[in-house]
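Re: beginner question about structure tokens

> Can someone show what the tokenized structure looks like for a real chain? I only ever see the sequence side.

Sure, here's an example I had lying around. Input first:
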Amino acid sequence: MRRQHKAGHLLSAAAGSLMLASLLTALGPAAPAPAATCQPPPGQPPSPGMQANRFAGVTVLSACNAWAVGSRTSSGVTSTLIEHWNGTAWTVISSPNPGNLSNQLAGIRALSATDIWAVGNSTSSGTGTGTLTLHWNGTAWKRVTSLSPGGIAKFTAVRTVSHKDVWAVGFFTTGHGDQTLIEHWNGTSWRIVPSPSPAKSGRDSELTGIAATSRTNAWAVGDFFRNGDDQSTLILHWNGKKWTRMKSPSPGVSDQLGGIGASSARNAWAVGFAINGTVLRSLILHWNGKTWQGSRAPAPAPGTSTSLGGVAATSASSALAVGSTFNGVTSQALVLTWTGTKWLPLQTQTPGSTGSLAAVAASSPGNAWMVGSFQSLDFPTQALALHN
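And the corresponding structure tokens:
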């Protein structure tokens, strides 16, 4: 099984266990909040874990309603972390932890205030690691049975189309390497849907992100080993009947995609990173309705590596991508905005010592939350949530 399969992991590994906090000072024109109380507080969300707290996914319903998920660690035990933004403050919400060794959430998506899905993985002694699927019914988070093929199975992302049409993606491990995993919720149960795994036997194919705009248009992204340790971008498309691999650019010696966002059948963005030697560069691909093409990312400062892990698209002229930069010592949060013609970096501040952003979601161009983690000296890793 692959040791690192998310776009931001290489930067985090290079920086050690530290992560950088970045507070946005400019994120374009912000839509007015519907009420005076629906304004982000000056501080950060609660971090209940004594050793580490990380957000990995976020979903936004309105200026007064958002959710973030991830993990928290205390006394060596990792548990699910779910927090809710009610327009005034972030609050930790009780969530199931079925595994006795580790439970982590990687993605979340909301259909409504009473219909939300969160996915990840759970590990128990004797039974190994399997997929974890949780559902919010407006009152409580409850576990819903999902399938876990192979020796290890993990979900990395989830997207909702309707209450009878939900997708979760990730990977599972067999004796022939990691294979792509896609499951579908039909309103009653989760079932596995066949998906391409292009890596040769013994090598890995994994999915790390998914987007869907209708019951006949969904995208899943990730990567696969084409030869040796070199990886290629992997993009799959759902046409209402089956998942098919699509041709996608892989400009680096090794490339990975970590997230995807779509606003229509003719507009989708996929982000990750490309490696040339020891240098990482942000990788941005765009779907124009016919083909996937590379899009130029802003050039980083000399000697700086960059990586993207999440993207949200609200229209053809509005999108946000998030990730991190690494200068050889520390990581810093990275936020890019699409103007309709080019990607531009957004100015940031760094009150913590190190950190990164893992995911972004938006209900409109002026209402987006970005989440990840940060660390200050002498403090454990803390959950990070930034709003435009």
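Each token stands for a local structural state, so reading them left to right follows the chain. Residues 1-36 have pLDDT under 50 and may be disordered.
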